[in-house]
Amino acid sequence: MTRGEWQRLYHIQSVLLSYGLDDLLPDIEKANKARKFRKALFWIKNQHPDKLLGERLRLALQSLGPVWIKFGQMMSTRRDLFPPHIADQLALLQDKVESFDGALAKARMEESLGGPLENWFDDFDIEPLASASIAQVHTARLKENGREVVLKVIRPDILPVIKADIKLMYRLARLVARLIPDARRLRPVEVVREYEKTLLDELNLMREAANAIQLRRNFEGSPILYVPEVITDYCSEHLMVSERIYGIQVSDIEGLKANNTNMKLLAERGVEVFFTQVFRDSFFHADMHPGNVFVAYDNPQDPQWIGLDCGIVGVLNREDKRYLAENFLAFFNRDYRKVAELHVDSGWVPADTNVDEFEFAIRTVCEPIFAKPLCEISFGHVLLNLFNTARRFNMEVQPQLVLLQKTLLYVEGLGRQLYPQLDLWDTAKPFLESWMARQVGPQAVIDAVKAKAPFWAERLPELPELIYEGLQQHRQLNHKVDQLYTNFKKQKQRANRAKLQFGMGATLLICGTVLYSHRVEDLPMVAVAGGMLFWLLGWRTLQRNEQES
Question: How many Cα atoms are found within 13 Å in the side-chain-facing hemisphere of 10?
Fold first, then answer.
């Protein structure tokens, strides 16, 4: 490790200890020894004994920067994994991150626009509307039409911090992969690489603008999801302008209830939005923590989700979608044999894996879980248990699916917050069955014909000419085949003749030698001359074959 990396690692350890986060270690002998060792090494005690553990964790993650804040945001959606005093504090990381100076934000916006902000906007609010780990949002009005908009600007000097943390994560990932053989199956370096790409993509707001435009087009006129319009004339790499929306933050349960929102339908629509994005569009919002999701005030009995912050999106290819859908359905149907076979077919586990043993291991883990009512089962827990089981069979993590796994945890966490009785399985299964039927059933044939119809219609006037050209080519090909066959027969006949000539030549040469040994006059020379003549004829026959082949 370089000096800078050691310094960063030392800083991380110092921050964790200064906030007393060693209290998170379990009260067992090894953990107590590790706690004492770190305190003796760093000589740092808890500097915030007056604050509760959850608040200390939030402040520590916030002070460590965007990489750690993102980690806290993901944890905040899993209230079933954390006690309320920790989950409530982590939830504040979603849009209550410490802001930076509004005057500095304005200066960065003007730098991107190439002039004073007042040239294009009125009523700019120097106080941020929201502040997140990567960017900050301010409100204003368009000068040309008075439309309310929000201006999102990237935090200053954030790139060096991200690069330093990512570099350290790479170093630690390689170290873990080298020192812990079992960890190699987790492919830590590939996972860090995927995470790095995700974070760096968020730093380009033009990419986020393009993502938002695509997502908005995918759900144009949809009653289940609304994506704010991007005002592209003012967007750049460090600035994005979009319409301002008004809604209830999805984590504001009391506010949603006060608005008489249909919580069950809202939770089910969250699941529908996720699976529609993944399987219909192959393009999904991969950062659906509560800070990025609102609910429209209008029609609370027919609630509509509002999706913000499209900096992180996931894309799946056809094979990934097919594999995922089949795996989910196999889980829903408790077809553990199918789950095991899919893991082998997709390459998640080695091809020589004993499917019978793998199936039995999956059944052993899953059956006790499925003994409970489906609405009480956490799909996230099932995946984690399956993952731990498959590790024994040398399963490797697929980095391209990390975003999807994270988003699924987000969706389940949000849904359970809104409606604790949410049956993710019952909500998702009909959708997946319908999607699979369209992929392999008669509808798939109809869809394929519809997709190809414009191309066929364009080529239809050319069909007679294409048929005529095809027949001509077929006739020419047959003629060439006949010629080749004729030449082949001739060459074969010449080859046989050459063999006969070589044989006759060899026979005469042998006879000449025998006659010469018996001192027969004149006949040996005649035999040798005849043998040489037959050899010459055989050689010329072979030469003709080579010239014509």
Answer: 10
Q: In 220-359, which ranges are E strands?
A: 225-226, 239-243, 247-249, 283-285, 293-296, 305-307, 313-315
| Residues 27-39 as b or e (16 or more Cβ within 10 Å = b) | eeeeeeeeeeebe
Judge if pTM exceeds 0.85.
no
The identity of residue 340, as a single letter, is A
b/e map 230-261, b = 16+ CB within 10 Å: bbeebbbebbbbbeebebbbbbeeeebeebeb
Confidence class for position 212, pLDDT limits 50, 70, 90: very high
Of 95, 165, 287, 309, which is the active-site residue?
287
What distance, in Å, lies between the first and last C-alpha atoms of the chain? 66
Q: Can you list the positions of beta strands (E) in 49-134?
A: 121-122, 130-131
Mean pLDDT of the chain: 77
The total number of residues shown for the chain amounts to 549
Q: Which tops the pLDDT comparison, 48 or 104?
A: 104
Residues 6+ apart with CB under 8 A from 326: 338, 342, 436
pLDDT surpassing 50 at residue 28: no
Separation between Cα atoms, residue 435 and residue 396, nearest integer Å: 27
Confidence of residue 348 (pLDDT cuts 50, 70, 90): confident
Side-chain-side CA neighbours of 453 within 13 Å: the count stands at 7
Ranges of each domain in the chain:
3-94, 246-440, 479-548
Q: From residue 140, give the alpha-carbon distance in Å to each of 84, 124, 342, 368.
A: 36, 4, 52, 55
Q: What integer pLDDT is reported at residue 241 of this predicted model? A: 94
Q: Which two tokens stand for residue 288?
A: 């659906």
Known catalytic residue: 287?
yes
- CA–CA distance, 131 with 95 (Å, rounded to integer): 5
Q: How far apart are CA 252 and CA 261, in angstroms?
A: 11
Determine the Cα–Cα distance for residues 114 and 106; give it in Å rounded to an integer: 12
Average pLDDT over residues 423-433: 73
* 188-207 CB burial, b ≥16 within 10 A, e <16: bbbbbbbbbebbeebbbbeb
Instruction: Report how far Cα 419 is from the mean position of its chain's Cα atoms.
Output: 29
- Cβ-contact 214, 263 below 8 angstroms: no
Average pLDDT over residues 370-374: 64
- What pLDDT is stored for residue 31 in this prediction? 44
